[in-house]
Design a protein that fits this description.
Strand content: 5-15%
Order of helices and strands: HEHEHEHEHEEHEHEH
Largest sheet: 6 strands, parallel
Structural class: alpha/beta
């Protein structure tokens, strides 16, 4: 067998098929909250030393509990922000150590990614129960570590591209109001965005949250669902 074909088959089995299976089929993964008036705001890629605090101020104003999927290597220097998240009742989930796609990393890298990330969180007194992979990509050893650490895999059903360089406040606002429905898990970003992207996300949420509240939606975090 041609070595390129063999390599592709291995790659297909290692990461492409697992990612597609968990993204597209109703398996042991959470993508929405079901038929309910509840919705969940979730934020990936932080902690950001500037914008995460501003986002927390907004959530506190409206008494909203959210879920933050944190890139573990952002914790150093931002421990006070992490403590604030916990003290204000938000759920802390894991979003990998350094935001690398599982499609392109090895077994040993995946193992070390989970181990190091969870150790960082434990040193800060945070017990991780929820995991969201960067870009929703997984490999076979991602799954092994999810089961080993007894984590729940959380994806989303609303993503509006708020991290993009050219995404405007108005575009984020319009897409959120168009796409959010009962039971939505909304994936937004408080870190790693281009050209102050998290700032635009926060500005859009200032407009969107009052509208969603007026429509009768109840904002929940993962812990309130699975406690």
């Amino acid at each position: 067998m041609n070595i390129l074909i063999l390599a592709f088959i291995i790659y297909l089995l290692y990461s492409l098929l697992p990612t597609a299976y968990y993204k597209w089929f109703k398996v042991d993964v959470v993508r929405d909250l079901g038929d309910t008036c509840k919705i969940a705001l979730t934020f990936d890629d932080g902690i950001d030393g500037i914008y995460t605090d501003k986002l927390l101020d907004l959530l506190l104003k409206y008494d909203i509990k959210a879920t933050f999927f944190i890139v573990a290597n952002t914790v150093m220097g931002n421990e006070d922000i992490l403590k604030r998240m916990v003290s204000e009742g938000h759920t802390i989930g894991l979003h990998s150590l350094e935001h690398k796609t599982a499609l392109l990393v090895s077994h040993m890298y995946t193992k070390d990614d989970f181990r190091t990330s969870i150790e960082i969180m434990k040193r800060c007194g945070v017990d991780i129960r929820y995991y969201r992979p960067p870009w929703g990509h997984i490999n076979l050893f991602t799954l092994k570590n999810i089961y080993q650490y007894n984590l729940k895999l959380i994806l989303w059903n609303v993503m509006v591209g708020d991290w993009k360089k050219r995404a405007t406040v108005e575009e984020i606002e319009n897409r959120l109001l168009r796409d959010i429905d009962s039971g939505s898990i909304i994936c937004l970003h408080d870190g790693r965005g281009r050209d102050e992207a998290p700032k635009r996300t926060i500005e859009a949420l200032k407009r969107v949250i009052p509208v969603l509240k007026d429509k009768g939606y109840e904002f929940v975090n993962m812990e309130s669902i699975y406690e």
